[in-house]
Write a structure and sequence with these properties.
The complex is a heterodimer of chains A (167) and B (741). Chain A has helices at 24-31, 87-94, 104-117, 123-130, 140-166; strands at 2-8, 11-18, 50-53, 56-59, 72-74. Chain A is α+β, with helices and mostly antiparallel strands. The longest helix of chain A is centred in the last third of the chain and has 27 residues, at 140-166. In chain A, 56% of the residues are buried. Chain B is α+β, with helices and mostly antiparallel strands. Chain B has 20 helices and 29 strands. In chain B, helix 6 packs across helix 7 (175-183), helix 16 runs parallel beside helix 20 (712-725) and helix 19 (642-662) crosses helix 20. Classes of the chains: A alpha+beta (167), B alpha+beta (741). Chains A and B meet through helix 1, helix 2, helix 3, helix 4 and helix 5 of A and helix 8, helix 10 and helix 19 of B.
């Protein structure tokens, strides 16, 4: 058993007497009460458990929490900026992407990391980046449309910000 | 219980208030203090004479003083969209803005809500008229209350966007101001209600985003796996890998000493695999502690009564039967032997499809609390009312002692029609004496499903000199668990299309025993049958050197009364012909395609829905298939929620493609071989085709969309592969026929 001090959604949290090998997923869900990150396969095949580690999309089911002290962990609960949804979250609502909704937190977190590194992905880039996230309901067409819409919104926001800074 | 649910449950308070003789004003105030408003709820039941009547004030519509309409979503949500679409129906007839609506999931109560189930694409057809009447009844009472307040006739008033208006005087009331008065009126006779015409719809047919979408995209607790109750521990349940085995011994003492483990014990099971199989439960402080302890658990199984099936043996046995007629005659008309003997051209083909699991993204789970002879469940189930019965049976208590809270599911596809995981959770909680959340691993979910059963069709067809199909024979080789009838989802209807449309037909059946249990899988029966039947019709069209479209439309030229039925619904040949023609037209059937591309067409009628699909594929020299585009035309009557409807169709096409392309489970010694997604290659985003969806919004009552768009897809793709390559696919998945995707 071990104690961990992790930075989750910008806050440092301490966890006492944890199993040495507890994966981040189960620490988030059962100990931190952040259940938006989902268990789908436990083997890194499905992407339902995707979170950000220092801005990179990772599969939280397959990474031990013990290795993560001092790293920035962001979950779906920490993606919005206060009450202001991330453009991906808004696009997901606007385009009514979810069916069952179970995989969508992982899809959104994976897409957010994509847009951080490639703000204007074409279809091939979206396909390539999102290929590790399964959706059993088959919402793939809307997932791709929503990523494109969010990319457009981000570009628009960036242009607005630039204009504001200049003026 | 959340506030709104509490208000529904507290409906009795209205009569309590009335008994105390409080004035209406007091009641409004009292309700406001309680955080609520007034409940107007209605439930339609059929009385002994079969006449529909409103029996009691009930729990669909609640009008709050702030003019928010709280509408109960009565059926379980598995991703099929009914938590949004069913309340839309109420809201339309209530005549409110969708923005004024707050949806809450109802509790489980057959006396108030009737059948509460997510299955069979039933939610829309079963609830369409009752929910319209519920909304219209509330509207009529609000209108009457306003008319009385103003001293005018109800017919001089009208409603709009959650208000009653009196145009002559320019006066208006918001519904919220009228709720108390309306609640004191007699409930109007259902025959007196005036329902809207489609031209008056303001909500139905629009694109409404799902009511849970905000919670989904922000990661709020919604699903079964997210449930947490006070004092809860975490459980796993290890069962015999050969279905139906029992526990000889287990190293419980070693497991109990592991860190975080609270308890470990054996449950004997009740002999019914749909309820409680024998196994070993481990209770721990966290999911991970329970999962970890499982690695140490060693169980010696008694497999005397366990499944010992082997898929390869089953295939060999079925193939040996292909030239025979089946043990049981399902249907015959005309003289198929004579018609085949005199046919200008005859064909024989043997079609095979495998067992497949449901594999919803959320592995099975259930939270249960057994205390003082009662059991409460937080259950992501498609059949919460069945769960009451099966859990009660498992525990040996009355159904009245079981409470089920219906919880959003991370996918259903038919898996959660059976409630074995609920029975396990209940039995574990009772034995442990504490509330527990039972969590299956993905491996459990793959190994202990109720599978879409595999099937075999030995088909014979005859063509006359003009290329018309004159003879049709299908020997269907399927599976039984009880030795008497095909298992769940493994039947061929005696009048399954196209047999009733062909002059000489014989449908027969042979059953093989299976210890691997069958289950209802999205569009049960049709999901496999359509592949065989629609592929073989194409084979006959090719043999006759005729256009497939022309042959399908010719089949549909017969009157509806001769066309047979599916799941008790008659096939309307005109509706069928309309969607076939529309899909062909929209896809550009018969027109030139890019080099190497080919079209395939298929139609199927299931769950009262008519769907025709055209697949556009190309196949490279290494037999790698690319599905570029699928054009879908469907008729399920008027569309309730256009956004949800398109999503269901797109999802059905992708599910259909995913399954026919690469999905199967293999088994030997009664054990499923595939364990996780690395061995079960669900379709990924880059393989998804473009999908065009077209609806014929015919003037029939609306029917469900969770299932009927799936069955035609496999044959549309295999027919297109034939058109592209000349190779006929008769065995699924495609990987078994030498193709990859």
């Amino acid at each position: 058993m071990a104690d961990f001090k992790l930075t989750i959604n910008g806050k440092i949290q301490e966890f006492k007497d944890m199993p040495d090998d507890i994966p981040l997923l189960w620490l988030l869900r059962d100990e931190a009460g952040l259940v938006g990150t989902k268990y789908g396969c436990g083997g890194g095949y499905c992407g339902s458990c995707t979170v950000h580690l220092d801005g990179m999309a990772i599969r939280s089911c397959s990474i031990p929490a013990a290795a993560l002290e001092g790293r920035q962990i962001t979950t779906i609960e920490g993606l919005a900026n206060g009450d202001s949804l991330h453009p991906l979250q808004q696009a997901w609502i606007d385009l009514d992407v979810p069916q069952c909704g179970y995989c969508q937190a992982g899809q959104i977190m994976n897409a957010a990391a994509l847009l951080d590194s490639n703000p204007a992905p074409d279809e091939a880039a979206i396909d390539s980046a999102m290929a590790g996230n399964l959706c059993r309901c088959g919402c793939y067409i809307r997932i791709k449309d929503a990523i494109s819409q969010a990319a457009t919104a981000l570009a628009y926001n960036a242009a607005e910000t630039t204009t504001e800074l200049k003026s | 219980m959340n506030d709104a649910a509490k208000m529904f449950a507290d409906m009795a308070s209205r009569s309590a208030v009335e008994e105390k003789g409080l004035s209406r004003r007091s009641f409004i105030k009292l309700s406001s203090v309680a955080g609520g408003g007034l409940v107007l709820g209605f439930h339609l039941t059929v009385n002994a004479t079969g006449k529909k009547e409103i029996t009691t004030l009930n729990a669909y519509v609640q009008v709050r003083p702030d003019n928010v309409m709280v509408i109960a979503a009565k059926n379980p949500e598995a991703g099929q969209g009914v938590k949004t679409s069913l309340p839309m129906i109420v809201a339309e007839e209530l005549d409110v803005d969708w923005a004024q609506v707050e949806v809450v999931q109802s509790d489980i109560d057959e006396s108030r809500y009737g059948m509460q189930i997510a299955g069979g694409s039933w939610s829309i057809p079963m609830n369409w008229m009752p929910l319209r009447q519920a909304g219209a009844t509330a509207r009529a009472m609000l209108l009457q209350a306003a008319a009385q307040e103003w001293g005018v006739t109800a017919s001089s008033c009208r409603t709009e966007a959650g208000s009653v208006l009196h145009p002559q005087s320019g006066r208006s009331f918001r519904y919220g101001e009228l709720a108390a008065a309306a609640a004191e009126l007699d409930v109007p006779n259902v025959e007196s209600l005036v329902l809207k015409k489609p031209s008056e719809y303001k909500i139905l047919g629009r694109r409404i985003t799902g009511v849970d979408n905000q919670a989904i995209v922000t990661g709020e607790p919604l699903f079964g796996i997210d449930q947490s109750v006070a004092g809860m521990k975490y459980a796993i349940y290890e069962k015999c890998p050969a279905r139906g085995g029992s526990v000889k011994s287990a190293n419980l003492e070693a497991v109990k000493k592991l860190p975080g483990v609270v308890d470990a014990f054996v449950l004997k099971g009740n002999g019914d695999v749909t309820q409680l199989s024998a196994g070993v439960a481990i209770i721990a402080d966290s999911t991970w502690a329970a999962f970890s302890a499982r690695k140490t658990l060693k169980v010696e199984w008694d497999e005397t009564d366990a499944a010992d099936d082997d898929w390869n043996e089953v295939v060999a046995a079925a193939k040996a039967l292909q030239t025979q007629t089946g043990d049981k005659l399902l249907e015959t008309h005309g003289d198929v032997d004579k018609a085949l003997a005199s046919a200008t051209n005859t064909l024989e083909a043997f079609y095979t499809y495998p067992f497949v699991p449901h594999a919803p993204m959320e592995p099975q789970n259930c939270t249960a609390s057994f205390k003082d002879g009662r059991c409460e469940l937080w259950a992501p189930t498609q059949t919460p009312q069945w769960a009451l019965e099966t859990v009660a049976n498992t525990l040996g208590i009355e159904p009245e002692a079981v409470t089920v809270n219906q919880i959003r599911m991370g996918g259903g596809f038919g898996r959660r029609l059976l409630n074995d995981f609920c029975c396990e959770a209940a039995a574990i909680s009772r034995h442990a004496g504490i509330p527990i959340k039972l969590q299956w691993s993905r491996e459990d979910d793959m190994a202990f499903d109720f599978y879409r059963i595999g099937g075999f069709h030995a088909l014979k067809g005859g063509l006359d000199a003009s290329g018309r199909i004159t003879a049709w024979e299908d020997h269907f080789i399927t599976f039984t668990e009880d030795g008497e009838k095909p298992t769940r989802g493994a039947s061929l209807d005696s009048n399954e299309f196209p047999a009733p449309l062909i002059d000489n037909t014989r449908l027969s059946q042979t059953m093989k025993h299976t210890g691997i249990p069958g289950g209802w899988w999205r569009a049960p029966g049709s999901n496999g049958i359509a592949f065989a039947v629609q592929g073989f019709i194409h084979e006959l069209a090719v043999a006759a050197k005729r256009d497939h479209l022309e042959v399908l439309l010719e089949l549909m030229s017969k009157p509806t009364r001769e066309a047979g039925e599916n799941a008790g619904k008659p096939l309307d040949t005109q509706r069928a012909a309309a969607v076939i023609a529309l899909a062909a037209e929209k896809a550009g059937w018969g027109q030139s395609l890019p080099s190497g591309h080919a079209h395939g067409l298929a139609f199927h009628f299931s769950h009262a829905g008519y769907f025709a699909e055209v697949a556009q594929v190309s196949v490279d020299e290494k037999r790698k298939v690319t599905l570029h585009r699928v054009t879908v035309a469907g008729d399920v009557g008027p569309i309730i929620n256009m956004s949800g409807a398109e999503n269901q169709v797109q999802g059905s096409v992708i599910d259909g493609y995913s399954t026919m392309a690469g999905l199967a489970v293999d088994f030997s010694s009664g054990r499923i071989k595939e364990s996780n997604f690395h061995e079960y290659p669900l379709l990924r985003v880059h393989m998804a085709p473009k999908i065009d969806v077209h609806f014929v919004q015919s003037d029939h009552p609306p029917t469900g969309l969770g299932e009927p768009a799936l069955p035609p897809l496999a044959a549309a793709v295999t027919n297109a592969i034939y058109a592209a390559t000349g190779t006929r696919v008769r065995e699924l998945p495609l990987s078994k026929s030498g193709f990859t995707v």
